[in-house]
Amino acid sequence: MRVPLETVKLTASFKLDGSFPESLFSTYREILGQLLDHAWAKGVTSFERLKAEKYHELRARYPSLPSHYIYTACQMACSIYKSSRKLKRRGVAKAEKPLFKKQVMMLDDHLFSLDLEGWEASIAVGGGKVRVKLLHGTYHEKFKGMRVGQAWLVKRGSDLYLKVVFSKVVEVVETNEKAVAVDVNENNVAFGTMERVVNVETKERIIRTAYFLKRRRLQSKPRLDEKPLLAKYRGRERRRVEAIYHRIANQIIDEANEAKASTIVLEDLTNVRKRIKRSRELNGRLNRWSFRKFQRVVEYKAKLAGLNVVYVDAKGTSSLCPVCGGRLSPNGHRRLKCRCGFEEDRDVVAVKNLLRRYQMDVGASPVHPEGPPMTTERDEKCEEGRDESLF
Q1: What is the pTM of this model?
Q2: pLDDT (tens digit, 9 = 90+) per residue, 158-176?
Q3: Residues 328, 320 contacting (CB under 8 angstroms)
Q4: Domain edges within the chain
Q5: Cross-sheet strand order for the sheet of 197-201
Q6: Closest Cα to residue 357, out of 322, 389, 318?
Q7: What CA–CA distance (Å, rounded) separates 27 from 30?
């Protein structure tokens, strides 16, 4: 039997140590601006068409520039223009015409090469190549042996970064009825099987709120330039939260391997911020909560481990009984009970309902075949309850 394969893509950021021509960024931004103007004026969204209409003109205008910089600029221009059109259709575009002011260049495999053994990169410039050292070598050992794809050269102040896309083809195990479901909340993550559920406190809400208040205090006081300090706090917040995400994701994979499960079941939380309109404070918390980032971390780690990843509808998973499908009612702090006698913590209920919904989707035998099918009707009592009941 043929083993199913899955391609996993990861992006790594390397800080570069070495000199690089300053004029190349300004030239690339100039080319990108001309391509954006042409795409906007003609309504061009196709890379092939934009390249056919502008390549020879730009090649003649910049003869000393490696030709593939024009190719990648065409790709970036199409992508930026299409994103601008989407924003405009939604009525949230900030400008009539798409603009790009960042110090970023897109590189393909003709413009750069990477030597992870020697921790060195070679980047094409006019008249030859520039070799630069890669920093943070020990952190990126996991990318050795993976295929190198596209990259972006990013300039931030005086620092230069190379963001590289790596890919790896992994063998995915055959799907069985065993799965581990993951219920993600603002302050905790619950995961497990029907037999065992683990609840891990993340304190993400506390961390996010603390840094939000720090930034607000900085912005409320007159300072010469608070931007470097704000950037420092944003970086600290991101690193703290991502470290928690990776630690919990590793625990989830270990739990799946121990249970011999073939699948990780995640919640489909698409448009959750649009669906929930409450107070200004709650809306602010939802916008700071990066649940999708956590799910992406779990997803790529699961695929690297050869596990399947499935998203199921999360609606009603914290308000319906996983045994009989009836509505649950509050029974103390974070406890829910059902008329059938079932009583459990709301996060355990969500995990078991996600598992039951997954089993119904794949056609597996339900754990409690005597119970009616789970509905997705929204629980009105749940909407009137605590904030945590929303997820």
Answers
A1: 0.78
A2: 889 999 999 999 988 888 8
A3: yes
A4: 5-169, 179-390
A5: 197-201, 188-192, 179-184, 263-268, 308-313
A6: 322
A7: 5
